Amino acid sequence: MLLIYCPYCEVERPELEFRCGGEAHIARPTDPSTQSDEQWADFLYMRTNTKGIYAERWRHIHGCGRFFNALRETVGDKFLKVYKTGEPKPDLDAIAKEASR
Amino acid sequence: MSQPFRTHSGGRIDRNKQLTFQFDGEELTGVEGDTLASALLANGRHLVGRSFKYHRPRGILTAGSEEPNALVGIYRKGDQTPNLRATQVELYDGLKAISQNRFPSLDFDVGAVNDLLSPLFPAGFYYKTFMWPRAFWDRVYEPIIRAAAGLGKPPINPDHDTYGNLYAHCDVLVIGSGPAGLAAALAAAETGARVILCDEQSEFGGSLLSESDATIDGKSATEWVEDSIRSLSAKDNVTLLPRTTAFGYFAQNFVSLAERVTEHMADPDPALPRERLWQVRAKEVVIAAGAIERPMVFPENDRPGIMLADAGRTYLNRYGVKVGDNVLVATACDTAWQAAFDLADRGVDIAAIADMREKPSEALLSVAHARGIRVETGCVITGTQGRKRVSGALLGRVTSGGVTSAGEVTCDALLMSGGWTPTVSLYSQSRGKVVWDDTLGTFVPGAPVQNERSAGACAGVYGLSATLEAGYNAGEQAAKAATGKTAKLARAEANGADAGNGGILGALPHDRNASKVKAFVDYQNDVTAKDVKLAVREGMHSIEHIKRYTTTGMATDQGRLSNLNALQIASTSLGKPLTDVGLTTFRQPYTPTTFGVFANVSRGDFFDPVRRTPSHDWVVENDGVFEDVGQWKRTWYFPINGEDMHAAVARECETVRKSVGLFDASTLGKIEVVGPDAAEFLERMYTNPWKKLGVGRCRYGLLLNEAGFIIDDGVIGRLAEDRFHVTTTTGGAAHVFATMEDYLQTEWPDLNVWITSTTEQYAVCAVQGPKAREVIAPFVEGIDLSPDAFPHMSVATGTFCGVPCRLMRISFTGELGFEVNIPRRHGKMVWETLAKEIEKHDGTVYGTETMHVLRAEKGYIIVGQETDGTVTPHDVGMSWAIGKNKFDFVGKRGLQRPDLVAEGRKQLVGLLTKDPKVVLEEGAQVTKLANPPAGTSAEGHVTSSYHSSVLGRSIALAMVKGGRDLMGKTLHVPMPSGAIEVEVTDTIFVDKEGGRVNG
Amino acid sequence: MKRYSFLELAKNAFSAHQNWGRQWRAPEPKAEYDVVIVGAGGHGLGTAYYLAKEHGIKNIAVIEKGWLGGGNTGRNTTIIRSNYLWEESAALYNHAVKLWDGLSDELNYNVMYSARGVMMLAHTVHDIQVFKRHVHANRLAGVQNEWLTPEEAKEYCPPLNISKDIRYPVVGAALQRVGGTARHDAVAWGYARAADDLGVDIIQNCAVTGIRRAADGSVEGVETAKGFIKAKKVGVVAAGHTSVLMEMAGIRMPLESNPLQALVSEPVKPAFPCVVMSNTIHAYISQSDKGELVIGAGTDQFVSYSQTGGIHITTHTIDAICELFPMFRRMRMLRNWGGIVDVTPDRSPIIAKTPVPGLFVNCGWGTGGFKATPGSAHVFAHTIAKDEPHPIAAPFSLERFRTGRLIDEAAAAAVAH
After folding, report:
1. In the structure, what pLDDT confidence band is assigned to residue B180 with cuts at 50, 70 and 90?
2. Do residues B439 and B310 share a domain?
3. Domain housing B943
4. 20 to 30 A from B836, CA-CA: which of B77, B85, B727, B866?
């Protein structure tokens, strides 16, 4: 049972209040008709599935209902950062360096 | 008092409170404060169980939760619990215990023949045999093995007891209440931090409860414990939880505890739960789990009467029980000597102290000498005698060339100590990595991974003074880390109970025939040193392989007693350093934990919430039958006058088509979509066009996923330029809403739209049938119901029975139909009003089954029945639902993928059986041949099938490859009783012109 | 290889079991192999075995980061069945069931395949529709599966609570009698021993750190903790770690790795005769030969390589078990552990060639890979040896995610209306 910080409510709450929304920063193409079948398959199905620091989406479904993004280390399940939807993807290497210190 | 081995004074027991209990039917007595184990020992009973594989007689080995042998079944008020540790079972008056894994009796167990046959049963023997003849495994060998395996008898009756669940938060959770834990709790509590102190035992104090002459602040150890607990319990910021095992350590300092609430009571209050789960989120955790003593691995080290030295001392000092009259002590470390001294001081004969070490400390030798105790140094046990109780032991002298016999000693109990193993289970569960400590010769916790610190013996810190100090420090640091506060607590000064030296790992040397003797490493699973060596010889070089091949460490103590010894034996056999062989992982639970603790209040209706519609009570009163749809209870059908389902549904269907029916549609999902961009949003979500939909009009909407497959549908009404009332399927409601939120928030944040789930806000009464308008008209105000003013697929707001309503003129039956949406709190009233009203029009209430038949007669699909997540709009003949000129919608690109536009996809068609009486089975397969050979690919399958009472025949819908090109063709539906001939038709069976909805 | 038998066991008893040989060697890697399999679980070891036995390829290495059989092979609840809906799936899993039947004999290692029957419970009208569709589809495909009434289900599994008063009463069940369980470790060990006997090098404690590709893009070999190993062909069979390994070859995978938990109770005398599964309320239970109740729990919702999961996942499963088998509330959990399962979008595996010539992948088994072990290994060996998918493996391509020809076993159980 993870403890997750919601950047909108600004509180830590148990995982039961949240729904994981999978990998973050996979934007839906603005004009899907220009996408090849390969590109569409990439968008639909291909995932980084990182062992290490992973950017993923969470929704505070039983709270404010908002989506936000989080960086989580997927071996120890530690959250390294949460940030609001729309904010740019953090520099994962920098975060990794900081975490290893 | 008929307990011959009870001392006359001392201990944490009340000799004045005699308790009667039964063991295997025999009536015995104990006293208050006893465990079942101490009471049995007080009666001189050592033989309490049989081992798993060889059925060897076994006694009580320990005094704690790691006990591998003394597992018993407890019977209580019709409930039966197997595999409880006698060392943990607190005695109460009338307790009934039975021994396990023996037949017909503990004394005479036919399974003991396995012991004689044991040369045939080395580790992993079952992988090498029982393969011939092939059919014999399931039918002969396995049933025999299964009957022989297992420990206690399983419970057979539903559990009568209840279980509780609590969530708790604290600053500092202290696990274990020995000297380190108590000191940690005292220090943390002093700062004002919120502290929870838990201990698996019935009484706080841990090892201090077994101390004889140590003092703290000039008080005896037990007095200091009592004072400390008194001071802790007086504080509001402290929660004390005895009989509470911290069994799981999860991510982010989430620790689960199991509290045994009533198990120790003779006559518990029935209102109390038997056990209670605590789910604790602790800012900081102090693990003070102590250490346990290691058995010594010598031949025949498993006879009843052979026990860990510290257990022997605990039985004496804490329970006032002598483990024997003539006790041999075998050791490789100092602490066991204290057990010998305490016993000697209580008048027990010490046959000898046999210490493996050449030169034990002079101090110990002189104390022994003063008591006249025989001491043998450089001496190991090389064997024991006595089948059901140890009667003597063989001594061996360890020399550079091996072991030579050093005579025999008679005894009626043998205490042993191979040294101490820190309990790192919880640390390991917290994902910490243990490190090898060469000085101590054990693994100790490495760096903390979570907000945790291990203190005292579990961190390899021994000796009372040092342990207390470690506890104080850990408590202070934890409190400071959690709250930022500090407080200086005066530290107690301890005398005595100094740290001992020594310890041994692995199998001891002996002069016996190694192939003949058994020296047990894992008692419960009957794993011997030989087995471990065999595994290594066979190529099992990883400790995990050795564990799994021999089953060492897989018993109910999870290897707490055996792991290090097994590891050492493996290391020696492999010729590799112990640390290179690896250590198996400790997993939750720390000790076996009752399923009821996890399931606690989840039972019956609490297993999963029940969602009921406003008509529910009325339906119950009127004998309606419910079906489960997700969490909802939906009315399935309404039998009257003893009708069966078939008759009820036939009547309901005919009545709706002839006059009118009332149906509770409240479970359908409802979403309010509001905002200037509401139409644009729906345009992007659904396949259909929405921008031009007029206010007051409704349209059927089809929702795909990005892969292009249908996931939901429903009617959407436009209430205003910027407001839509969206309906979804019952099962899809939550998912559709979440999907919409996802797109709105993360893909199209530029859209000015708000969405709200209103499923629970509205009750929905569907009134369907030619007389529907007449039925609702008397109650409607503010809406012109005339066909021209309010045609099919209209929506309007007004009042119904005087309450605000959204009235939709829509139909899932093909008849004139209305759906009345009213605030849920008025749902019951409106339902009952309408139910009364339809009676005047010879109408009926109807349930989901009739709804299904009526819509199937019209060829309307049900998402999840006609579709299965692999079906496109084109497949179900709904290309019309796709907006032709739309730039984009969810699933548009997916729909264009090669396989979704390929020839030969399954298409929705109707099927009519040649024999109109035959109703196809839903899910039945459709084939070209009447008798297809096995392995034939199906042409399709039946998705819906009913008897249509209106048509007087059966009808069916099916997904069939290229189905729309097969109209009028004959196909087959093979069944076990023979194939059924069917004709492919279109999907509309009733009112093909579709005029009736316009009535 | 000295054959195992009762006679051999008895013979060895006289020599105090001193003369048993190694079940497999612990070789150092050679500089070059014809085929390198990455991952020594059941699927990987089996692949090596069938490559050597049926395709005459002898120069094979299986490279394993940890110890053989230590991943999901040794962590699952050992359920075997083949009553899947889609004919592609049924063909694959039924191929496995047929191999299971003779596997002990084939490997001369008792894998304890026990066809005690797998019963899948229906709790709703929708369940009935779905399961009957399975039963009919399976019958046509030649896969054994039958429908039981609640009373028949109770007769087959006496502890089952078929009372109408529970939250989700049992309304029927689909039974596959040839379904059952096997001893998971023995499967890995049996394949390892047999493969080793055919000359396969099983190299444990040797992590693969890179996949080297030649200038033409084809696979050249693998970088490992023990140096570079040249290989004509590489097969990745690494379950939860597939994405990590394929990334080394520059290939993104349609996979997410989730923690999946399982647990056992303390051992008791026989209490449970078969395997019971309930997808609707998430309960999976059988009893091992040792007497432990073996219970499968669910997956956590997020990607994780931690091999542990949340307590609420376990609790949810035990809730369901206690609801269906109320006597087991007094049983006690002995051990709870996690594995890392690689889940595909359509919940069907990938057994395929990849865009990199010479690189093959077998993954995506999600929560149900154990049951397929022999079948998966057998068709994957064929795919590698012939550089051409085995007909049974062909539908399980990577290509399907582009074309949309998914084999969606999850959607098949979708609930709506």
Report:
1. very high
2. no
3. 903-999
4. B727
Q: What is the pLDDT of residues B689-717, one digit of tens each?
A: 999 999 999 999 999 999 999 999 999 99
- Report CA-CA distances (Å) from B772 to B429, B804, B851: 65, 19, 15
Examine the fold and report which residue of B558, B584, B610 is the final residue of a domain before the chain moves on.
B584
CA distances from B69 to A25, B510, B551, C59, C330 (A): 56, 25, 16, 49, 20
Torsion sign across C-alpha atoms B802, B805, B807, B813: negative
Number of domains in chain B: 5
- Tell whether B315 and B412 lie within a shared domain: yes
Indicate which CATH number applies to the domain containing B970.
2.40.30.110
Measured between beta carbons, the chain C residues lying within 8 angstroms of B150 are 267-270, 290-291
Nearest to B890 by CA among C400, A29, C411: A29
Q: Give yes or no for B888 touching A (CB within 8 A).
A: yes
CA B944 vs CA A82, B320, B657, C172: distances in Å: 48, 75, 20, 19
Task: Tell me: do B506 and B369 sit in the same domain.
Answer: yes
Q: What is the mean pLDDT of residues B296-314?
A: 98
Q: Which of B443-482 are b and which e, b meaning 16 or more Cβ less than 10 Å from the residue's Cβ?
A: bbbeebebbbbbbbbbbbbbbbbbbbbbbbbbbbbbbbeb
Cβ distance B252 to A59 less than 8 Å, yes or no, reads: no
In angstroms, the separation between the Cα of residue C413 and the nearest Cα of chain A is: 20
Strands of chain A (E only): list them: 3-6, 11-14, 19-23, 53-59, 67-73, 78-84
A22's tokens = 């999978």
Question: Is residue B658 in some structural domain?
Answer: no
Q: For B392-408, what is the HEC assignment?
A: EEEEEEEECCEEEEEEE
B94/B100 Cα distance (integer angstroms): 19
Of B99, B127, B155, the residue that ends a domain is: B127
Check CB contact of C348 with chain A, cutoff 8 Å.
no
Chain A: closest CA distance from residue C408 (Å): 14
Closest alpha carbon to B84 in C266, C326, C272: C266
Amino acid C413: pLDDT:
57
B284 and B199 part of one domain: yes
Q: Above 50 in pLDDT, residue C416? A: no
User: pTM for this structure?
Assistant: 0.96
In this structure, the answer to whether residues B220 and B354 fall within a common structural domain is no
Same domain, B70 and B188: no
Chain B residues with beta carbon closer than 8 angstroms to that of C125:
627, 629, 636
Helical ranges in B304-452 per DSSP H: 309-317, 335-345, 362-371, 425-429
Contacts of B610 in chain C (CB under 8 A): 167
Q: Per-residue pLDDT tens for B536-576?
A: 999 999 999 999 999 999 999 889 999 999 999 999 999 99
The pLDDT of residue B531 is above 70: yes
Confirm whether B705 is domain-assigned: no
The verdict on B505 and B372 lying in the same domain is yes
The answer to whether the CB of B994 falls within 8 A of the CB of B859 is no
Whether B511 shows a pLDDT value over 90: the answer reads yes
Q: What is the CATH number of the domain that holds B505?
A: 3.50.50.60
Q: What Å distances lie between residue B816 and B659, B812, C355, CA to CA?
A: 10, 9, 58
Cβ-based contacts under 8 A for chains B and C: 347
For the segment C197-216, what is each residue's pLDDT rounded down to a tens digit?
A: 999 999 999 999 999 999 99
Q: Report if residue B200 sits inside a domain.
A: yes
Classify residue B374: in a domain, yes or no.
yes
